[in-house]
Design brief:
This protein has 396 residues and is an alpha/beta fold. 44% of the residues lie in helices and 16% in strands.
């Protein structure tokens, strides 16, 4: 009888309908997709009534595809978003139970939160860290002026360039240049309203950035990273993915803080990858189970260990021993970890991506010599003022 009951129960389970969760994500590189799929397979094994279908997106056009999907009423159930995008997508996202974020590090509790409500669960965090050639002779205690002097001494084109400055890559121009401007004392884009941060200190920061241009390779991110692999660049802000390269580790150090002037804190921009649930999902309970499954230190660390460009887990560290296990890959990882969590979060805004585009276009024009510091100051002031006025009028 017991055997018959077991067979009957198994047959009933096999006829239960399988619910499909559609997940759109930006882990589009082969290694990223493979490791993310491993985690999803683990989830499916412990949740046999749920099957997950994934769609990889590219950072270059993924935001536009998401906007089209939400506006047409065909969004995914679960969506991977950059931390800076949450405010803009908030109207189409489901409010989340606060228990999903109880394990977050205190430095990033604001990620995914608008007011007192969470709309996304932070999973990993990252920053563009400053990587320096050992021949520069600089360390985490080096001042801004001494750092600039070392960059100038290292510069000997076409074999070596003092510093790498990024242009024309959406989302990267800001992340790879703004920390250098902050290092000189500017607080541009660090507080609200943004227009008040485009002040005389921003003008001075533009002048400092302009001084670096004669000693710089001014290129896209991938080109700068390739120079880094060949040891042809003195210093550059780049992602932690470069620490997976043995040639980079053999030649370069990571500083725990960006060289800066006394009025600055040497911070980079703290960013992160979050998961959110579409408000229109037909399977909110299943989606929350997936977010709960992913948002643990163990699973985030498993992904970060295999995918260096993911950065570091957003969750609190269970123990120093566990953290040591994650950072033991090379000595540079410890400073990268420290610099990441010394970084600061940009203010959440529904129009952040528009402001980011304006700032990136102005910075690129400055680096190309199309604008000087004075005209760059005027241009960004006008753009951000116009943007803020537009949003104020819409909210009124």
């Amino acid at each position: 009888m017991l055997a018959a009951v077991a067979v009957f129960a198994a047959c009933n389970r096999s006829t239960e309908p399988v619910r499909v969760l559609r997940v759109w994500h930006f882990w589009s590189e082969p290694a990223q997709q493979r490791e993310f799929r491993k985690l999803l397979d683990q989830f499916e094994r412990t949740h046999p009534g749920i099957r997950i279908e994934t769609t990889p997106l590219q950072w270059s056009d993924g935001k536009a595809k998401l906007q089209i999907a939400f506006s047409s009423g065909t969004p995914p159930d679960v969506v991977h978003l950059g931390a800076e995008w949450i405010t803009e997508f908030m109207p189409v996202l489901r409010q989340l139970d606060s228990t999903l974020v109880q394990t977050l590090r205190p430095e990033i509790v604001q990620f995914g939160r608008i007011g007192g409500t969470y709309y996304a669960v932070p999973w990993t965090v990252n920053a563009r860290v400053l990587v320096v050639h050992r021949a520069l002779g600089v360390n985490s205690n080096t001042t801004w002026n001494a750092f600039v002097a070392a960059v100038q001494r290292f510069h000997s084109p076409p074999q070596r360039y003092g510093i790498g400055l990024c242009i024309s890559d959406p989302h990267n121009v800001l992340k790879r240049n703004l920390p250098l401007m902050w290092a000189t004392g500017s607080h541009v884009f660090r507080t609200l309203p943004l227009s008040t941060t485009i002040d005389t200190m921003f003008l001075a920061a533009c002048a400092e950035l302009e001084k670096l241009v004669p000693f710089a390779a001014i290129e896209q991110s991938r080109q700068l990273d390739e120079r880094l692999r060949r040891g042809q660049i003195g210093a550059v802000l780049t992602g932690t993915w470069m620490l997976a390269d043995a040639a980079v580790r053999a030649t370069y150090d990571v500083l725990s803080v960006i060289p800066h002037r006394g009025t600055s804190d040497g911070a980079s921009i703290l960013s992160g990858d979050c998961y959110a649930i579409a408000r229109s999902t037909a399977h909110p309970g299943d989606a929350e189970q997936l977010l709960s499954f992913l948002s643990t230190w163990e699973r985030a660390a498993q992904f970060c260990r295999e995918v260096p460009d993911a950065g570091f887990p957003a969750q609190r560290v269970p123990s120093q021993q566990v953290l040591d296990t994650l950072l033991m890959r090379s000595s540079q990882w410890r400073n990268a970890y420290e610099q990441t969590f010394r970084s600061c979060v940009l203010p959440p805004l529904p129009y952040f991506l528009d402001a980011e585009r304006d700032a990136e276009e102005v910075i690129a024009a400055l680096l190309y010599g199309k604008l000087n510091p004075h005209t760059a100051h005027i241009e960004l002031t006008q753009r951000i003022n116009r943007l803020e006025q537009t949003w104020r009028s819409q909210s009124d």
